[in-house]
Amino acid sequence: MSPESQAPHWEWYYIAMYFYIGGISAGAYFIGSLVELLGKDRLREVSRAAYYLAFPLICITPVLLIADLGRPFRFWHLFYYTKDGVPYMNYTSPLSVGTWALLIYSIMSFLSFMNMLVADGKLTSPFIKKLHDIFSRIPHKVYTAVGSFFGFFVAGYTGVLLNTTSRPLWEATDPVIGALFIASAASTGAAAIAVVMAWQNIQAEEAFNRIEVFDRTALIIEFVLIALMVVVAGQYARPLVTGFYGILFLGGTVVLGIIIPLWLGWSGRRPGSAFNPVMLNAVLVLFGGALLRISLVQAGQMK
Amino acid sequence: RWPLKAKTEHGAILMHVDPRFTRTSALCDIHVPIRAGTDITFLGAIISHVINSKRWNTDPFFREYVANYTNAATLVNPDFKDTEDLNGLFSGMSEDGKAYSNATWSYQRNPAPAPSVTEAKTFTDLLLQKIPGRPKTDRTLKDPHTVFQIVKRHYKRYTPEMVEKICGCPKEKFLQVADTLLNNSGRDKTSNIVYAVGWTQHTVGVQIIRTAGMLQALLGNIGRPGGGVLALRGHATIQGSTDIATLYHSLPGYLNMPDARKNHDTFKDFILTESVPLSTSYWGNYPKFAVSYFKAQWGDAATKENNYGYDYHPKITGDHSHLPMFVDMMDGKIKGFFVMGQNPAVGGQNARFQRKALAKLDWMVVRDYFETETSAFWRNSPEVTEGEVKSSDIKTEVFFLPAAMVSEMEGSFTNTQRLLQQHEKAADPPADARSDVWFTYRLGKQLKKMYADSTTDRDWAIKNLFWEYDPEPAEVAGFRIKDEPSAYKLLKEINGYNWSDKKPLPSFANLKEDGTTVCGAWIYTGVIPEEGVNKARNRHGDDWISPNWGFAWPANRHIMYNRASADVQGRPWSEKKKLVYWDPKGEFKDPTGKIIIGKWVSPSGEGIDFQPTKAPNFRGKDNGIAFDWLSGNDPFIMRADGKAWLFAPAGLVDGPLPAHYEPYESPVQNLLYKQQANPVAKTWKIPGNPYHDVADPKYPIVVSTYRLTEHHLTGVMTRWLPWLAELMPELFCEISPELAAEKGIKNAEYMTIETARGRIQARALVTRRMRPFLINGKTVHEIGLPWHWGWQAQAAGDVVNNLSALVADPNVTIHEGKVFTCNVQAGKRGGAA
Amino acid sequence: MTKGMFVDTSICTGCKACQVACKEWNGLPGEPSHFHTVPDRPYRVAKNFTGNSYDNTGNLSATDWRHVRFIEQFNENRTEARWLFASDSCKHCNDAGCLNACPVKAIVRTDMGNVNVQQDVCIGCKYCIPSCPYGVISFSEQTGTVHKCTLCNDRIHNGLGTACAKACPTGSISFGEVAELKKNADARLAQLKKLGLANANIYGYNEAGGLNVFYLFIDDPSVYGQPKNPVVPQRRLFRSAALTVVTAIAVAAAAIISFRERGQQKNKGVKP
Ligand SMILES: Nc1nc2c(c(=O)[nH]1)N[C@H]1C(S)=C(S)[C@@H](COP(=O)(O)OP(=O)(O)OC[C@H]3O[C@@H](n4cnc5c(=O)[nH]c(N)nc54)[C@H](O)[C@@H]3O)O[C@H]1N2
Ligand SMILES: Nc1nc2c(c(=O)[nH]1)N[C@H]1C(S)=C(S)[C@@H](COP(=O)(O)OP(=O)(O)OC[C@H]3O[C@@H](n4cnc5c(=O)[nH]c(N)nc54)[C@H](O)[C@@H]3O)O[C@H]1N2
Ligand code: SF4
Ligand code: SF4
Ligand code: SF4
Ligand code: SF4
Ligand code: SF4
Ligand SMILES: [Mo]
C-alpha cells in the first residue's frame, strides 16, 4: 500500500456523476438491446424506453468528464496525439481505452436512438431520414450488439480505472470495483427503464415484473460484490465504512439502495398486499447507485 | 562536506558537544549534551584526565612536545596565586574588584642581557636596548612553579563527577570523549577541535577557546596536519574584515590602534608601548609594519619628520565596540551612524535598547538590499506599533541607499582558514545600487574636495589622505558603471609596494621602517608578489594542502607554527604526519645568491612558518630581537618566548588560566568556586538593561540562541526570498516535551518567552532533541531560540534579541547571546492563545 | 545510457539546499499554499509552520519537486537518539505508473530513461496522480496540468548533472549512470553494514520494476514514508478487468434468464 500516494481531487459532481450516469445509460441500453435481440414483442416497450434513455444520458457524460479537466479545451488529445499527428490509445490506461469505448458506445446508442425516433415516426427531417436509411443497411441487431458490448465497457472501465491506482482504498478494493459498477449499472439501468415506463404510465404488467426480477438479481450480485469488496479491503475500507462516506455508503447504497428495495420487492409480492412498490423501488435503486459512485470516488480521495 | 568525507572515507570519529541535538549531532558518532555555558568545566576536566592518564605520561611524544614547544616548563612568579588559592580569583585583583593587574602572572626571568647597540638611530635599535632576560625553565616539569604544575593543580577538581554535576552530561559520555581525544592524538594521529559562536558568545568566551588551545597543545595537536583549534567564522570574509581591521581597536594586520588611554602620545611611545613586550617574537618587526601602514595612508605626505602622519591619525578613547557604542548612542554621545552590512535592530543584543538608541541619532545612513528592520525602526518597530514610542517623536533622519551584491563587484574573500580567494564581478548592480567600496571612495573624494583649502591642522589627515583607486579603463570595460574603484589597486596597496618604483613586495620581509615601503596590511604581503600577478586567483587544487589554490596569509602558510610538525631534532614526528622538517644537506639560496647548507623542507608545498635555514639546534641570541632571539625549537614565532602558552602571562584581562564561571545569568550557583561569574565581565547597569539574579525564581529557565541552515543571521538575505521563507516560515522555540507538559505548551501552538528586557512569542516546536539537565540534583530546563526573525519580510517573527542583555566578555566585548535566563508560558504575547 | 540518482540518506544533513536548487534551476515559485496576504504588507508572508520537526513544506507538489523528510527517533530518556533526513523526488520508475496511466501520452520517457510530462500535451485529467505509488506527480491549478521532477531534463541532455545533486554539499545526492551509481551504493551499503547498521537497505533496485532514482536508507522504507512493496497499479489491470468481464457475463445471463421466452417462472431468477 502507498500511504503517500496523492489524491487526484476529482469533484464528485463531475467524475462520480459521470461514472453514475454512464452506468445507467449503458445498463439501460444493454437491457433494451437484449430484449430486442430476444425479440419479444410483448416487451417492446422496454427496449423503446431503454433507447430513448441511453443516448440522451450518455450525451451528458462527456460534458462532466471534460468539465473536470485542467485543460478542458485539450480534451481531443484523448483521441489524437498531436506530436505524431495520429490517433492515440494507451492500452495500459483504462481511461484511454474507456474513452474510446465511450465514443463507440455513444455512436451506437445514437443510432438506436435515431432508429426509435424514426420507427415512432417522430422524425420528419429528410436529411436525418437519409442518414437513417444509410445506417439501416447495417442490420440493427449488429450495432445494438456492438453497442451493448461497449456499453458494458463504459459501465465497467470506470471501476477498473479506480482499482488500477495506488490510492489505498482503491488499491485495496481491487479487483472488485469494476465488477461492482457493472452490477450497479445493470440495476440502475433497469430501474431507470422502470421509472420512465411508469412515468409514461405504460401498462405492461409483465414487463414490469421481468424488469423487477432482473433488477433483483442485479441487486443481489451487487450486494455480494460489496460484501466481497469490504472483506478484501480490510482495514483500508475504513474511509468507506466510517464517517460521512460511511453513512452515504452503508446507509444510502446498501440499506436504501439494496436491502430496502429487495425487501419491498419481496413483501410487495406477498399475496394480498395491495401496494405495488415498482416506482419507489426504482427510485431507491437509482439513489443508491448514485451514492455508491460518490462514496467510492470521494472516500478514495480522503487523506 | 569534508568532515563527512573524513568520516565515510577515512573512518574519522566526529564528536559534537552541544546542549541540543542538532542536524550536526545527527551526523556525528557521538553527541554530548551539556548545559550552555559550562564548556570550561568540560574541557578543563579533559585536560586533567589527559595529563593524569597513563598513556600521556608514558608515551614520550607528549613529553617531548609539551616540554619543548609549550611554556609548560617555564617558571612563573612565585607571588602568583591561583583560583584554587583565592576561591575563584587570581592574584592581582584591584581593591574595587573590577580589574586585574597581571604583575604576578609574569615569568621568572634571567637578568636582561647587555644591549648590543649603544645609541638608538632606529626604532629597531630602541628595541634592541630593551630586551628582557630569557624566562627560567625546568624541563623536568617538576618545579611547583612550572606552568605545568600550576595547570595540574588548577584543574585538579575538574573531575568527571564534577562534569556530571555542572554540565549535566553523563560521566560515561565525558570519559568516552576524553579517551577518544587522547587515543586519537600522538605521533601519528592528530585530532582537531572546531568551534564557532557556541563558544565565543559568553562572558568567558575567550577563555573557553583558550582551554581548547591548551588541551590541543598538551595533546601535541598544534602546528601539525590534522590538528589545531579551528574557528568557523561567520560572515563571508569576516576573517578578511578583521584582518583589514573593522575592529575598533586594531589597525590592519593586527597592529594596535593608537589609544589615548595608553602611552601612545608620540609615534615613538606608540612603537615602544606596542612592540617592546613582543620584540623577542616576529613582532620585533613591528616598527616596519607600522611605518609602512602609515605610509600607505598618506603617501608622500607621510615623512620621518611628521612621524609618518601618526600625530594626525585618530586615537580611540575607550571601548568603542558594538555594545558600548550603542550605550553611548543612547546617551546622545553619537550623532550620526553609518550602517553598511548590519541589521542591529534584530541582531543586536537587547535589540529594544539598541532600537531606542537609534532614535537618539540625528542621522543614519543604511546601505542595504531591502528595507531592513534597522532602516524601518522609526515607522514599524514593536516600540512604535505597541505605542511605546511615537514615530513623530523620532528625530533621526534615515537615508536608505541601495547596496550592490557581492556578485556585482570584484574583490576577494578571506575565509576562515585565512585563505584569500578572488571573485569576479558578474554583472552591474541595478539602477542606483553601488558597492560599498564605490560609496566609500566617493565619500572620501568628496570630503577631500570639501577640505581641500582648509588651513586648520586637524584637517591634515583628510587633505593628505592617499586616495587614488580609479579603475583602469580595461577593468571596467564591458560594465555600465565606469567609476567602480579598482579592486586590484586596493589589494596591491594592502599587499604593499616600494613607494619609489611602485613595485609590489613579494614578502613582508621586504618591509622597511624608513618610509620607503607602503603596506596596508603586512600579513597579506605576497598575495601580489609582482605586478599583475594575484595569487588569490590561483585555482589549482590538489588532494591535500593545495598551496596553489588561492593564497593563505601569512606567506601561503596554511598550518601556522608548522615547525611543530617536526620533533626537536627537526625530524617528522611520523611518516604519516610528515609536513615540514629539517634537511641537514638541503641547499638554500638566499636573496644575495649565497648558498646555505641545511634547510627546512616542505614537500607538500606548504609555506614554512619558520626561518628557512635556522637549524633545529640553533640557540637564539639573548640580545637579539625577532628571529635572532628565537631558537631552533621555538615554533611559535609570534609569541615572545616562541612557545605555545598554556599559561598566559599577558594579553588577557580575566586571568592567565581559564576557570569555570557560571554565565552572568544562571539558574545555579558555581559549584567550583565562591566566585559565581567572570569577575571582570563587562556589564552595563543602566536603565533599559536590567539583569536577572543568580537562580532568580522569576526566570528559572536557560535559553540559548542560535542559527538555522535555512536563514542567514538577521534574515535580510533570506527572509525576503520565498524559497527560503517557506522552509522556515516563522520564529519557533525548541522545547523539551518535559517542560512543555509542565507549562501546558502544545506543539506548533504559540508560546511566550519573557525576560526582564522583553517578551516575545514563538511557535512551539516540542522535541526530544531538547532535554532537561540534572544539575547537582536539580532539574534545569533549557530552551532554544533561532534568532533570524524580524517584523519585516516574507518570513516574519518576533525579534529574539528583545530578550537578551548587554553583557560581555571582558577581553573582546562579545555578548552572551548563547546563554541567559528566561521564563515561558503557553499562548501569545498578548495573552491570547 | 540510463541516467539516475543515488540518494545516500546516511550522509544527508537535512540542509535543503537540493530543494532550493531545484526551484532555482526549474524556475519554480514558492508553493502558493504556503503564503498568505497580511494587512498593510505589500508582499505575501509565509504561514506554513507545521511543527513536524524541521519539515515545513510537508510533501512533494507541483512547485516542490524535491522534499527533504525529517524523522526524529528518540526514546524517553534519549538513550536512543537518531534524527534521520532523506531527500525525496520522482523516482523515474522503469515501469512508471504515471506514464502507464496517461491517456494522452503526455508522459514520456526520454533516451536517458527519465520520465517527463509534456506540458503542451497534458489535459489535466489527473489520472496519473493516484497512479503514482509514491505520491510524486501533482496537479497545478495555475497551469491546469501536472508537474514533477524532470531529472533536470534540460541539464542532463546538455552534459550537466542534476541541479539538486550539484547543490548537495555532502554528496548525499549523486547523479550518473544508474549502473555506476549502483556500484557506489553497494559499496556504501557494505560499509554501513560493517559499522553495524543492520537495517540499512537499498530502496529502488527491485521495487516496482526498479527505480532510476534509488535510496540508501538505514531504517525500514516505511519510516521514510516510502511504500513497503510498491506495485505498479497497471500490473493489476488484468485481474480487475477479468472479474469485471465475468460479472458482465453473469449479469447478461441473469438478464437472459429474466427476459427469456417463458416468463412464467420468474421467481427462478432469484432465491428470495
Ligand atoms: N545558514 C547559516 N549559516 C551561517 C550563519 C547563518 O546565519 N545561517 N551565520 C554565520 C555566522 S555570522 C556565524 S558567526 C556562524 C556561527 O555558527 P555556529 O556557531 O554554528 O552558530 P550557532 O548556531 O549560533 O551556535 C552553534 C551551536 O552552539 C550551541 N550552543 C549554545 N550554547 C552553547 C554552549 O554553551 N556550549 C556549546 N558547546 N554549545 C553551545 C547551540 O545549541 C548551537 O547549536 O555561522 C555562519 N554560518
Ligand atoms: N542572540 C544572538 N544574537 C546574535 C548572534 C547569536 O548567535 N545570537 N550572532 C551574532 C553574530 S555571530 C553576528 S555575525 C551578528 C550578525 O548580525 P548582522 O551583521 O547585523 O546581521 P546580518 O543579517 O548579517 O546583516 C548583514 C546585512 O548586510 C546586508 N548586506 C549583505 N551584503 C552587503 C553588501 O555587500 N553591502 C551592504 N551595504 N550590505 C550588505 C544584508 O542584506 C544584511 O542586511 O549577529 C549577532 N547576533
Ligand atoms: S515516481 Fe511516480 S511520478 Fe515518478 S515516474 Fe514513478 S510513477 Fe511516475
Ligand atoms: S493529468 Fe496530464 S499527465 Fe496526468 S494523466 Fe492526465 S493527461 Fe496525462
Ligand atoms: S533532478 Fe532536477 S528537477 Fe529533479 S529534483 Fe533534482 S533538481 Fe529538481
Ligand atoms: S542538499 Fe544534500 S545534504 Fe542537503 S538536504 Fe539535500 S540531500 Fe541532504
Ligand atoms: S553558505 Fe552553505 S554552501 Fe556556502 S560555505 Fe556555507 S555552508 Fe557551504
Ligand atoms: Mo558571526
Characterise this structure.
- The complex is a heterotrimer of chains A (303), B (833) and C (272).
- In chain A, 73% of the residues lie in helices and 1% in strands.
- Chain A is mainly alpha-helical.
- In chain A, helix 3 runs antiparallel to helix 5 (140-163).
- Chain B contains 27 helices and 26 strands.
- In chain B, helix 3 runs antiparallel to helix 9.
- The model of chain B has no long low-confidence stretch (mean pLDDT 96).
- With 272 residues, chain C is an alpha+beta fold.
- Chain C starts with a strand and ends in a 13-residue tail after the last helix.
- The model of chain C is unreliable at 263-272 (pLDDT under 50).
- A 4-stranded mixed β-sheet of chain C has the order 10-1-12-11. A two-stranded antiparallel sheet of chain C has the order 2-3. A two-stranded antiparallel sheet of chain C has the order 4-5.
- At the A-C interface, helix 1, helix 3, helix 5, helix 7 and helix 8 of A face helix 2, helix 3, strand 8 and helix 7 of C.
- The structure holds ligand MGD (2 copies), iron/sulfur cluster (5 copies) and molybdenum atom.
